[in-house]
From TrEMBL:
Pfam families: HTH_1, LysR_substrate. Belongs to the LysR transcriptional regulatory family. The lineage of its organism: Bacteria, Pseudomonadati, Pseudomonadota, Alphaproteobacteria, Hyphomicrobiales. This is LysR family transcriptional regulator. PROSITE patterns: HTH_LYSR (PS50931). Residues 1-58 form the HTH lysR-type domain. It comes from the Bacteria. Keywords: DNA-binding, Transcription, Transcription regulation. Gene3D superfamilies: Winged helix-like DNA-binding domain superfamily/Winged helix DNA-binding domain (1.10.10.10). GO terms for molecular function: DNA-binding transcription factor activity; transcription cis-regulatory region binding.
Amino acid sequence: MEIKWVEDFLALAHTLNFSKAADERHVTQSAFSRRIKQLETWLGTTLIDRATYPSRLTEAGEKFIPIAQETLKSLYQVRHGFQANQTLEAQTISFIALHTLSFTFFPPWLKEISDAVAPVFTRLRPDSGSVEGNVNALVDGDCDFLLTYVHPSVPLLLDASEFDYKVVGFEQIIPISAPDADGNPLHMVGRDEQPFDYIGYEKSSFFGHLLSELFALKMPEHRLVHEGSMSIGLKGMSIAGWGVAWVPHSLIAEELANGQLVQGADPSWNIPLEIRLYRSRNNQRGVIEKFWNRLPDLRNSSDHN
């Protein structure tokens, strides 16, 4: 059965005149009559009483009207929904981002860029919790862009012939501690050569990789008192006085300013990072190209100095 047969029937049910209904449907009367007959054959019943003039519907024809109307309504609604979704998908840009970046850096950065690219719809996938998982999401095509911190100690193993990146920002990872009554660090890295209480990251996370590689030989004697996967959790543990944690400056700037947190080591323990946006060179969708071309590349910038 074809949808146009149902549309033809409803036009005929409205006019009860083959000639007028054919004109309304922009076909010849013979073609129109043939299509009505094809619908009747498919249904296995007669819809039109052709023995009378003007034509009238049979009992089956009367019963079929609401069914035909509801069928067409449902089909049109589904088609409209699919078309709208396809249009939305064509304009959708999907990201995967490290947890901290997703709520410190991502919102204002995206707003600034998308204002120049609009209209655009964005989707943010949750951080997988591991460096490998985030990279695989990009490699497997589960996202258009990977937004991540980058440091030479944590190679991302993305083939430069297949994946491109731009530096979109910079960050400092700061060792922090709750203050004592005098405003000095309650816990301090390397103070009086005494072990310090250390709040660490799970090994599979980006910062877990970073700190274990960077401080493998450098870290003074310490006691691991807590391990977590998210910087915001380590920040909370540090505020509560558990020990020293390395946390992105963007996440703790307010607490450092109001004295709720203090630096838990001298500045030589700060870790500078780049914030990079990666994409597959094979992703040629127009909205991706437009977005990418609007992005400045800060890799030669001195903003992080």
